[in-house]
């Protein structure tokens, strides 16, 4: 591993020291207090996290490559994220949340060359000079209207104030957030910091959800929630251009999501049905090909962008607990989008299917550990394939040519966890070796296969 600059190493040590002091001070206060203050009295620090991922990409067979291809000789990169998560309930029916985060490092091969990128905790490339500094990740208000007298306890967590909430209610969230905070959840494949690292396993990659380069946007979510089913509608600002940091106004560009969640109590199954429609300044693949054919140039879908174009897609997301109080279970996702207009905000995938299993470590006397194994297969629309084969590039893909085949992904991880408790607080340390194998990277059977090896350290309060 190359020697890190002294300033970077000192910064990481300072961040870790601050994290430890924050935990000790808050936990000591909680342990000494005779009567903890109600949640509404003061803002609360709900969570602090630090995640380090060291990942190595193997060399791969590469008869040719382009500006956005995986590096043929392999690569090795480390990434760091630090986050502080706070909340306040000034009224029983109103909550305010504020999160600050910082990203450092970069993904292997500059986080390009794949539909299913291999480090879900890294920022995407796309905005030159994007500063690696603390920024506001979330700043939103949540309002709740109970529709009955039955309540359930909710535990303290990142972006979740402790207390009780009505099991049947109406909700409204407004502000800065991530679309994936409320849509396409899955208990076994939802977080690159603690579960699968590959983008195609912690999200439906055919869902081109609205986000700036760092993964956040502004918008609103309205929901009806009950014990057996829930219905959510979200509307978010889209970026000005593909993978851009600047967001358009809702009048000019927006994503609209509608998700029905079914939770029959008897079997523990959860099924989520998602539909979305994006409106933005997206290029049209067919139009870009026509312009290139007439001019003899390489097609450029970004040069054909025009306001008011649409993208429509669907998703199915299911999870099934099997044993160990739900810690052992299986999951599956299916995703589809029309693939006519430019993939714009998340990644370049038009069709997706994934499935996997999580196994609890209770079976080998490590009850807090988890073993995960999953696979994903994904593809492109016909016109998207033709565009890449003609030498076109998106914001993640561009080998200069394309011998099309489905991108196939296999990932396995083991998460070892240790927990230390003090008063009302708990500090969790997780160490996770991870392996990924990908056939036809970037949907190109002329290149690959390629392997990725990673070690993830996650510290969470």
Verbal overview:
Helix 3 (285-295) packs parallel to helix 4 (382-389). The strands form 2 sheets. A 16-stranded antiparallel β-barrel has the order 1-2-3-4-7-8-9-10-11-12-13-14-15-16-17-18. The protein has a two-stranded antiparallel sheet with strand order 5-6. It has 4 helices and 18 strands. It starts with 5 loop residues before the first helix and ends with a strand. The protein has helices at residues 6-32, 199-202, 285-295, 382-389; strands at residues 44-57, 75-91, 94-105, 135-146, 151-154, 163-166, 169-177, 217-225, 229-237, 254-262, 270-280, 309-323, 328-337, 351-360, 370-379, 407-422, 425-439, 450-460. The protein is mainly beta and 461 residues long. Strand 8 and strand 9 (229-237) form a beta hairpin. Helices cover 11% and strands 43% of the residues. It has one domain: Porin (Beta Barrel).
Please tally the helical runs, counting DSSP H or I stretches of 4 or more residues: 4
The CATH class turns out to be Mainly Beta
Strand content: 35-45%
**SSE pattern:** HEEEEEEEHEEEEHEEEEHEEE
């Amino acid at each position: 591993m190359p020697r890190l600059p002294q300033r970077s190493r000192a910064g990481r040590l300072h961040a870790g020291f601050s994290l430890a002091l924050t935990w000790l001070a808050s936990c000591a206060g909680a342990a000494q207090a005779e009567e903890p203050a109600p949640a509404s009295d003061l803002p609360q620090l709900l969570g602090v996290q630090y995640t380090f991922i060291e990942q190595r990409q193997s060399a791969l067979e590469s008869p040719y490559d382009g500006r956005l291809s995986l590096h043929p000789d392999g690569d090795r990169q480390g990434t760091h994220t630090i986050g502080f998560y706070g909340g306040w309930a000034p009224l029983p029916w109103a909550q305010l949340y504020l999160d600050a985060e910082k990203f450092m490092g970069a993904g292997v091969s500059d986080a390009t060359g794949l539909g299913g990128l291999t480090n879900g905790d890294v920022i995407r490339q796309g905005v030159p000079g994007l500063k690696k500094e603390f920024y506001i990740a979330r700043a939103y208000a949540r309002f709740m209207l109970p529709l009955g007298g039955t309540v359930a306890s909710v535990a303290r967590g990142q972006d979740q104030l402790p207390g009780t909430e009505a099991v049947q209610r109406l909700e409204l969230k407004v502000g800065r957030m991530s679309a994936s905070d409320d849509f396409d959840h899955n208990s076994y494949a939802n977080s690159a910091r603690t579960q699968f690292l590959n983008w195609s396993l912690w999200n439906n990659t055919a869902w081109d959800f609205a986000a700036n380069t760092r993964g956040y946007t502004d918008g609103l979510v309205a929901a009806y929630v009950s014990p057996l089913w829930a219905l959510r509608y979200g509307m978010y600002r889209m970026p000005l251009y593909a993978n851009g940091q600047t967001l358009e106004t809702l009048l000019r560009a927006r994503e609209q999501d509608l998700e029905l969640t079914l939770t029959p109590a008897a079997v523990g199954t959860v099924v989520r049905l998602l539909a979305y429609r994006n409106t933005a300044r997206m290029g049209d693949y067919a139009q870009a090909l026509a312009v290139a054919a007439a001019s003899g140039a390489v097609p450029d879908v970004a040069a054909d962008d025009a306001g008011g174009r649409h993208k429509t897609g669907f998703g199915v997301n299911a999870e099934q607990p099997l044993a160990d109080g739900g810690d052992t279970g299986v999951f599956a996702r299916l995703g589809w989008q029309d693939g006519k207009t430019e993939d714009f905000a998340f990644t370049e995938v038009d069709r997706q299917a994934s499935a996997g299993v999580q196994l609890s470590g209770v079976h080998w006397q490590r009850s807090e550990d988890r073993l995960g194994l999953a696979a994903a297969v994904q593809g492109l629309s016909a016109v998207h394939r033709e565009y890449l084969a003609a030498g076109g590039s998106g914001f993640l893909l561009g080998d200069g040519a394309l011998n099309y085949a489905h991108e196939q992904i296999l990932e396995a991880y083991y998460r070892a966890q240790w927990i230390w408790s003090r008063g009302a607080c708990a500090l969790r340390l997780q160490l996770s070796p991870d392996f990924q194998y990908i056939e036809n990277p970037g949907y190109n059977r002329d290149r690959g296969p390629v392997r990725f090896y990673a070690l993830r350290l996650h510290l969470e309060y």
